[in-house]
Amino acid sequence: MNTLLVFSLLAVGAGCTSNDVEDVIADDQQPTEEVTDNTMQYEFPGVLDAGQIENKQARITTDKGEIVFTLFGDTAPMAVSNFVYLANQGYYDGLTFHRRVEGFVIQGGDPSGDGTGGPGYDFEDELTDDYTYTQGIVAMANRGSDTNGSQFFIMLEDYDLQKAYTIFGEVTEGMDVVSEIQIGDIMTKVVIEDIGGEKEVDDSEVGEVADDSGAEAIAEDQE
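-> structure tokens emitted (223 positions)
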């Protein structure tokens, strides 16, 4: 079974040598178009307009607290557009963090919950920025070049990782929550906000509020 992950993760988690990692990648991590039966199917949105991806942040709510990270719409427009699109579809709500490697990363965003799932499409890497994999960096997990989908990881510590994973954000609030996340912890809600706290609202939600004369605010129920 092909598992979407940071390839170097196995080396950190299991103490493998570089040759061991190459063998694992060759035998079990080849890029593939195969997906599991319960993979959700969506359509890659392309690059959204600047108003939807610039000066934005994502807020992940968990039972352990909230994680907020700035989105790098200028340097990773495809990855940010993808995350905004999926979040606004409610895709991430209820998904888990399915992987943790101490001193390295937490990883989530898989509808299968085991590292094999995705949205039903791949998109290209964006690797020309100057960011490195320091604590709090948010990046796309993949199974090879240009195979980004919905899974992402957050760096627990600084790590000298090969620049092969699109960096599209950085944690600005809740790094203590990131440090406490364990395998199986749920993202109960993921919302996109303007930096400063105003969240994105889709047209259907606005209509629902307009029809409710007693509504005083829009509930945070959109990613």
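The longest strand covers residues 56-62.
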